[in-house]
Design a protein that fits this description.
273 residues, alpha+beta, Phosphatase 2c, domain 1, five-stranded antiparallel beta sheet
Length: 273
Protein backbone atom coordinates (compact mmCIF):
# COMPACT_ATOMS: atom_id res chain seq x y z
CA UNK A 1 0.00 0.00 0.00
CA UNK A 2 3.01 2.29 0.28
CA UNK A 3 2.47 3.25 -3.39
CA UNK A 4 -1.07 4.41 -2.61
CA UNK A 5 -0.67 6.12 0.76
CA UNK A 6 1.90 8.70 1.76
CA UNK A 7 2.30 9.41 5.48
CA UNK A 8 4.24 12.01 7.46
CA UNK A 9 4.29 12.18 11.26
CA UNK A 10 5.85 14.58 13.72
CA UNK A 11 5.71 15.11 17.48
CA UNK A 12 7.26 17.90 19.56
CA UNK A 13 7.45 18.57 23.28
CA UNK A 14 6.38 22.20 22.74
CA UNK A 15 7.65 25.28 24.53
CA UNK A 16 6.48 24.62 28.08
CA UNK A 17 6.23 20.93 28.98
CA UNK A 18 9.25 19.04 30.27
CA UNK A 19 8.24 15.69 28.79
CA UNK A 20 6.48 14.58 25.63
CA UNK A 21 3.53 12.35 26.57
CA UNK A 22 2.29 11.95 23.00
CA UNK A 23 2.96 8.73 21.07
CA UNK A 24 2.69 7.96 17.35
CA UNK A 25 2.52 4.75 15.33
CA UNK A 26 2.70 4.72 11.52
CA UNK A 27 2.87 1.98 8.89
CA UNK A 28 2.05 3.38 5.45
CA UNK A 29 2.50 -0.02 3.84
CA UNK A 30 -0.20 -1.55 6.06
CA UNK A 31 -2.34 1.60 6.02
CA UNK A 32 -2.24 2.11 9.81
CA UNK A 33 -1.85 5.40 11.70
CA UNK A 34 -2.24 5.83 15.47
CA UNK A 35 -1.88 8.91 17.68
CA UNK A 36 -2.24 8.98 21.46
CA UNK A 37 -1.99 11.92 23.88
CA UNK A 38 -1.29 10.69 27.40
CA UNK A 39 -2.24 12.20 30.73
CA UNK A 40 -1.16 11.45 34.27
CA UNK A 41 1.46 12.60 36.76
CA UNK A 42 5.07 11.45 37.01
CA UNK A 43 5.23 10.63 33.27
CA UNK A 44 2.41 8.10 33.60
CA UNK A 45 0.77 9.78 30.61
CA UNK A 46 3.73 8.77 28.50
CA UNK A 47 3.30 5.17 29.65
CA UNK A 48 -0.41 5.21 28.81
CA UNK A 49 0.06 6.69 25.33
CA UNK A 50 2.81 4.24 24.42
CA UNK A 51 0.72 1.31 25.68
CA UNK A 52 -2.22 2.47 23.58
CA UNK A 53 -0.15 2.97 20.44
CA UNK A 54 1.74 -0.31 20.79
CA UNK A 55 -1.33 -2.41 21.57
CA UNK A 56 -3.52 -0.99 18.81
CA UNK A 57 -0.70 -1.01 16.28
CA UNK A 58 0.26 -4.63 16.94
CA UNK A 59 -3.34 -5.89 16.99
CA UNK A 60 -4.31 -4.16 13.76
CA UNK A 61 -1.13 -4.97 11.85
CA UNK A 62 -1.49 -8.67 12.68
CA UNK A 63 -5.05 -8.60 11.31
CA UNK A 64 -4.33 -6.74 8.04
CA UNK A 65 -3.59 -9.85 5.90
CA UNK A 66 -6.95 -11.34 6.91
CA UNK A 67 -9.10 -8.25 6.34
CA UNK A 68 -12.34 -9.14 4.58
CA UNK A 69 -15.09 -6.54 4.21
CA UNK A 70 -17.61 -9.36 3.61
CA UNK A 71 -16.95 -10.87 7.05
CA UNK A 72 -17.97 -8.60 9.91
CA UNK A 73 -15.43 -10.08 12.32
CA UNK A 74 -12.60 -9.37 9.90
CA UNK A 75 -13.68 -5.90 8.81
CA UNK A 76 -11.20 -3.11 9.63
CA UNK A 77 -13.71 -1.26 11.83
CA UNK A 78 -14.37 -4.37 13.93
CA UNK A 79 -10.64 -5.02 14.32
CA UNK A 80 -10.10 -1.38 15.26
CA UNK A 81 -12.79 -1.55 17.95
CA UNK A 82 -11.28 -4.76 19.33
CA UNK A 83 -7.79 -3.26 19.45
CA UNK A 84 -9.04 -0.23 21.37
CA UNK A 85 -10.78 -2.47 23.91
CA UNK A 86 -7.49 -4.33 24.46
CA UNK A 87 -5.54 -1.12 24.84
CA UNK A 88 -8.04 0.28 27.34
CA UNK A 89 -7.94 -2.90 29.42
CA UNK A 90 -4.12 -2.96 29.42
CA UNK A 91 -3.84 0.65 30.56
CA UNK A 92 -6.58 0.29 33.18
CA UNK A 93 -5.02 -2.88 34.59
CA UNK A 94 -1.57 -1.26 34.76
CA UNK A 95 -3.05 1.71 36.60
CA UNK A 96 -4.63 -0.57 39.17
CA UNK A 97 -1.50 -2.68 39.59
CA UNK A 98 1.02 0.12 40.22
CA UNK A 99 0.41 3.16 42.40
CA UNK A 100 2.62 5.41 40.26
CA UNK A 101 0.36 4.73 37.26
CA UNK A 102 -2.94 5.14 39.09
CA UNK A 103 -5.37 7.33 37.15
CA UNK A 104 -3.28 7.46 33.99
CA UNK A 105 -5.05 7.59 30.65
CA UNK A 106 -4.75 8.73 27.09
CA UNK A 107 -6.80 10.23 24.32
CA UNK A 108 -6.68 8.55 20.93
CA UNK A 109 -7.09 9.07 17.20
CA UNK A 110 -6.42 6.23 14.77
CA UNK A 111 -7.25 5.11 11.25
CA UNK A 112 -6.94 2.12 8.93
CA UNK A 113 -6.84 2.66 5.16
CA UNK A 114 -8.11 -0.40 3.30
CA UNK A 115 -10.00 -1.21 0.09
CA UNK A 116 -10.52 2.40 -1.07
CA UNK A 117 -11.84 3.38 2.33
CA UNK A 118 -10.81 4.45 5.80
CA UNK A 119 -12.01 3.14 9.16
CA UNK A 120 -11.26 5.56 11.96
CA UNK A 121 -11.82 5.99 15.68
CA UNK A 122 -11.18 8.50 18.41
CA UNK A 123 -11.54 8.88 22.17
CA UNK A 124 -11.12 12.17 24.00
CA UNK A 125 -10.04 15.40 22.32
CA UNK A 126 -7.49 14.14 19.81
CA UNK A 127 -8.94 14.96 16.41
CA UNK A 128 -9.23 13.66 12.86
CA UNK A 129 -9.68 16.04 9.94
CA UNK A 130 -10.05 15.42 6.20
CA UNK A 131 -8.89 17.82 3.49
CA UNK A 132 -10.77 17.26 0.23
CA UNK A 133 -10.91 19.72 -2.67
CA UNK A 134 -9.05 22.29 -0.53
CA UNK A 135 -11.75 22.17 2.16
CA UNK A 136 -10.91 20.99 5.68
CA UNK A 137 -13.62 19.04 7.53
CA UNK A 138 -13.52 17.96 11.17
CA UNK A 139 -14.61 14.31 11.31
CA UNK A 140 -14.62 13.91 15.08
CA UNK A 141 -16.38 15.48 18.05
CA UNK A 142 -14.28 16.21 21.14
CA UNK A 143 -15.10 14.30 24.30
CA UNK A 144 -14.60 17.38 26.45
CA UNK A 145 -16.39 19.51 28.99
CA UNK A 146 -16.15 22.55 26.71
CA UNK A 147 -17.67 20.71 23.74
CA UNK A 148 -20.57 19.61 25.92
CA UNK A 149 -21.06 23.15 27.22
CA UNK A 150 -21.08 24.60 23.69
CA UNK A 151 -23.58 21.99 22.50
CA UNK A 152 -25.84 22.74 25.49
CA UNK A 153 -25.61 26.48 24.86
CA UNK A 154 -23.92 27.18 28.21
CA UNK A 155 -21.06 29.02 26.51
CA UNK A 156 -20.41 30.19 22.96
CA UNK A 157 -17.85 28.68 20.61
CA UNK A 158 -15.81 31.90 20.88
CA UNK A 159 -15.84 31.73 24.68
CA UNK A 160 -14.73 28.10 24.47
CA UNK A 161 -11.70 29.07 22.38
CA UNK A 162 -10.49 31.32 25.19
CA UNK A 163 -11.45 29.10 28.13
CA UNK A 164 -8.90 27.78 30.63
CA UNK A 165 -10.78 24.44 30.79
CA UNK A 166 -9.81 23.24 27.33
CA UNK A 167 -7.96 20.17 28.62
CA UNK A 168 -10.86 18.68 30.63
CA UNK A 169 -11.82 15.54 28.71
CA UNK A 170 -14.89 13.48 29.51
CA UNK A 171 -13.63 10.23 28.01
CA UNK A 172 -10.20 8.59 27.71
CA UNK A 173 -8.57 5.18 27.47
CA UNK A 174 -7.57 3.57 30.76
CA UNK A 175 -9.71 5.58 33.16
CA UNK A 176 -12.53 3.06 33.36
CA UNK A 177 -12.62 -0.71 32.89
CA UNK A 178 -14.51 -0.16 29.63
CA UNK A 179 -14.51 2.69 27.15
CA UNK A 180 -16.77 3.46 24.22
CA UNK A 181 -14.79 4.73 21.25
CA UNK A 182 -16.32 6.75 18.44
CA UNK A 183 -16.07 4.61 15.30
CA UNK A 184 -16.80 5.50 11.68
CA UNK A 185 -15.78 4.67 8.14
CA UNK A 186 -16.03 6.30 4.73
CA UNK A 187 -14.80 5.92 1.15
CA UNK A 188 -11.66 7.85 0.23
CA UNK A 189 -10.70 9.66 -2.94
CA UNK A 190 -7.26 10.12 -4.49
CA UNK A 191 -5.95 13.45 -3.26
CA UNK A 192 -7.64 13.25 0.14
CA UNK A 193 -5.40 14.22 3.06
CA UNK A 194 -6.29 12.99 6.55
CA UNK A 195 -4.89 14.81 9.56
CA UNK A 196 -4.72 13.26 13.02
CA UNK A 197 -3.58 15.61 15.77
CA UNK A 198 -3.32 16.05 19.51
CA UNK A 199 -5.04 19.05 21.09
CA UNK A 200 -1.66 20.75 21.28
CA UNK A 201 -2.27 21.71 17.65
CA UNK A 202 -5.95 22.65 17.40
CA UNK A 203 -6.04 24.42 20.79
CA UNK A 204 -3.55 26.97 19.45
CA UNK A 205 -4.05 26.97 15.68
CA UNK A 206 -7.42 27.84 14.17
CA UNK A 207 -8.98 25.43 11.70
CA UNK A 208 -8.71 28.08 8.98
CA UNK A 209 -4.94 28.24 9.45
CA UNK A 210 -4.67 24.46 9.56
CA UNK A 211 -6.62 24.30 6.30
CA UNK A 212 -4.35 26.88 4.67
CA UNK A 213 -1.15 25.08 5.69
CA UNK A 214 -2.30 21.63 4.60
CA UNK A 215 -3.79 22.94 1.34
CA UNK A 216 -0.65 24.80 0.33
CA UNK A 217 1.73 22.01 1.35
CA UNK A 218 -0.28 18.88 0.54
CA UNK A 219 2.32 17.86 -2.05
CA UNK A 220 5.04 17.91 0.65
CA UNK A 221 3.61 16.25 3.75
CA UNK A 222 6.80 16.34 5.87
CA UNK A 223 7.00 20.10 5.32
CA UNK A 224 3.28 20.47 6.08
CA UNK A 225 3.77 18.59 9.36
CA UNK A 226 6.69 20.85 10.28
CA UNK A 227 4.65 23.99 9.55
CA UNK A 228 1.70 22.77 11.60
CA UNK A 229 3.89 22.03 14.62
CA UNK A 230 5.75 25.32 14.28
CA UNK A 231 2.46 27.23 14.05
CA UNK A 232 1.41 25.75 17.41
CA UNK A 233 4.78 26.64 18.93
CA UNK A 234 4.66 30.16 17.51
CA UNK A 235 1.28 30.58 19.24
CA UNK A 236 2.68 29.56 22.61
CA UNK A 237 3.42 25.83 22.37
CA UNK A 238 1.71 25.28 25.72
CA UNK A 239 1.35 21.53 25.23
CA UNK A 240 3.00 18.69 23.37
CA UNK A 241 1.96 18.88 19.73
CA UNK A 242 1.70 15.89 17.41
CA UNK A 243 0.42 15.47 13.86
CA UNK A 244 0.02 12.64 11.38
CA UNK A 245 -0.78 13.45 7.74
CA UNK A 246 -1.89 10.70 5.36
CA UNK A 247 -2.44 11.47 1.67
CA UNK A 248 -4.27 9.05 -0.62
CA UNK A 249 -2.22 8.84 -3.81
CA UNK A 250 -4.32 6.45 -5.89
CA UNK A 251 -7.14 3.89 -5.61
CA UNK A 252 -6.22 0.81 -3.56
CA UNK A 253 -8.83 -1.90 -4.00
CA UNK A 254 -8.29 -4.90 -1.73
CA UNK A 255 -6.98 -8.18 -3.04
CA UNK A 256 -9.68 -10.87 -2.50
CA UNK A 257 -8.78 -13.20 0.40
CA UNK A 258 -8.93 -16.23 -1.92
CA UNK A 259 -6.16 -14.78 -4.06
CA UNK A 260 -3.95 -14.37 -1.00
CA UNK A 261 -4.55 -18.00 -0.03
CA UNK A 262 -3.57 -19.20 -3.51
CA UNK A 263 -0.46 -17.03 -3.50
CA UNK A 264 0.57 -18.44 -0.11
CA UNK A 265 0.13 -22.02 -1.38
CA UNK A 266 2.19 -21.26 -4.48
CA UNK A 267 4.91 -19.68 -2.35
CA UNK A 268 4.93 -22.64 0.05
CA UNK A 269 5.25 -25.06 -2.89
CA UNK A 270 8.09 -23.04 -4.39
CA UNK A 271 9.97 -22.96 -1.07
CA UNK A 272 9.59 -26.72 -0.72
CA UNK A 273 11.50 -27.42 -3.94
Amino acid sequence: MGDFLEVAALTDVGNVRQYNEDSLGVDAGAGIVVLADGMGGHRAGEVASVMATDTIFATVRAAVPAFDTRDRERQPLTVLARSIERANAAIHDAGRAEARYRGMGTTLACAIFHDNGVAYAHVGDSRIYRLRDDTLSLLTRDDSLLRDQVDLGVISADEARHSHNRSLVTRALGIEAEVRAHLASEPVQPGDVYLLCSDGLNDLVDDADIELIVTKLAANLPLAAQHLVQAAKDNGGLDNVSVILARVRAPFAATPPGVWRRLRRILATWRGR
